[in-house]
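I had to read the description of the data format several times before I understood it. The format is easy to grasp once an entry is in front of the reader. For illustration, here is how one protein appears when written out as sequence plus structure tokens:
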Amino acid sequence: MQTGKIGVTSENLFPIIKKFLYSDHDIFLREIISNAVDATQKLKTLASKGEYNGDITDLKVQVKLDKEAKTITVSDNGIGMTAEEIEKYINQIAFSGANEFLEKYKNDANAIIGHFGLGFYSSFMVSEKVEIVTKSHKEDAKAVKWSCDGTPEYHIEEIEKEKVGTDIVMHINNDSEEFLDESRTAEILEKYCKFLPVPVLFGKKKEWKDGNQVDTDEDNQVNDTDPTWTKMPADLKEEDYKSFYRRLYPMADEPLFNIHLNVDYPFNLTGILYFPKIKNNFEVQKNKIQLYCNQVFVTDSVEGIVPEFLTLLHGVIDSPDIPLNVSRSYLQSDSNVKKISSHISKKVADRLAEIFKDTRDEFEKKWDDLKIFIEYGMLSDEKFYDRAMKFFLFKNAEDKYFTFEEYEKLIKDSQTDKDKNLIHLYTTHKEEQYTFVEEARSKGYDVLVLDDVLAPHLISRFEQKHSDKQFVRVDSDVVENLIKKEDSTKEELSWEQKQELSPIFQAVCPQNNTHTFIVDFQDMGEQASPMVITRSEFMRRMKDMSAAQGGMNFYGDMPDNLNLVVNTAHPLVKKVVEAKDKKLGKTLEKLVADINTQKAEIGELEKAKEGKKEEEVPQADKEKMDSLNNELAKLEEAKREKLTDFGKKNKLAKQLVDLALLANGMLKGADLDKFVKRSVELIK
């Protein structure tokens, strides 16, 4: 029996392995099984080279639990080790056997998982003692047993072992007894080992008998050794891809499309990416792509290797060329990762362009589910933006689809304004903005539907890239002003007239903290609505983007600024004006006359001050000026109060404002009830 010390530079290495080397303690099983798979793959390579003549038809890895003995044993019938190899590869930490083997057989080695020679020591995260029982494939090799209790000291001795291969026996410590539970181990195997290239056996298959699950005589293989992504696309049918998706995500809806990646230059990468069905709430969908290294699960946090916008996708990526840290748990950022990320983005864009070109009808049917990916990509990846312009689609209010170029041809003649800008009208909610949509269409305009959370950001990006194209929501102004063809020739109210009418309608606007109303007056024609509520395109877009970003900023905290546009040509509005003149005519005439008298006197005093310094103006004139200004303010306030009081009492004015609110879905609760009752009164 031989006793020695493991070749490490510090006795602190074991605590470091136990606490810090691996991100999750359950990863020990992945590492030990990965080493076992490596051992079988090495033996297969030697057999193909004629350097091993034994039977390789039943290569496998077996995992066994013994709750009483508190052990987990991982057994393989692979290449095995001699005492010298244990000394070299186990006792000298980080001298990786896989690296040396790969160098020797680099042109024909099967998939070798290990890179660093540290995977075996992950067993000490959960074990108070670890034993290796192994017999090398080499002729006349003696079987040996190695054991270590987590200190740098080990023991090695010759033993009897009939078959070639290795058993790793882990004596589980008290803190890690959860791993002795069959269901917990099965969960770990499903997570890390379900696609390993060598059969992994754990327990027996079960069947229902007399209301209970009982073991059968058949071994339970936990993995698919030949997963779909490892096959050639030409050998697969659509159902194969769907079946594999169900294997990955049993509870998910059927995906929209899939993209099969198969790259061998300038790096090796295979995989299948799926476009899942999602709508607006895409954040919760992340971390669904699984990263593998030679069919060993590494992580589902792939932000480093997959472009940000494609982290919304589902599926599998497998590459031996992705640089990982020593524990294979974290990606390392380098130029290779960036190249892979860029290549994946290109492959996805090329595939989408191909699907669009070959099956446009199907592409259009899936667009509403697909567009969130495309828009996210166009906003976050400049190269993808350029590629996506070939297949990005606009949908209009008639549910017809157009590429950017097709839509420009459609609206060029009718929606170019007087400054040669091409105006894209759009709605964010076809039902709520129905009246505005219909008014725009009645003018011969086409209206887009841009109703997802990324639309405000995307239309801003379009406008940045195309300075002669603008996007205007249909409720941002009255229809006559949405696309200005020429300067208006209609007679507008004077400032004084607007000042006199504004308090009447302002008085019957809702008073709350969520909306502020600015009253304006325009001649929209007798056939148009008596009043229209519009929303500033700039302010609304800023608030939409603020809401989409999930935080409240300067714009998000501000109340909605709404414009109440009063149609001065409408008979009902004229009726309110006539009622005002009848009720307040003489009172207003006197107030206006007094106001004009005050203004005239103030004007004379201002004229007398011209050319004088402040100290040269007589004190009497200063006092008179103050008195006149105070009197003018009182007269203006009295006029405003008379008009406001009239507005509050005028049922027709209130009814017209409520009609505009109702058309915008803004009349609810008690206000809606009052509107209905008032409507009945006015109809009588």
Notes: The first helix runs from residue 13 to 21. Confidence is low (pLDDT under 50) at residues 94-98, 109-117, 325-330.
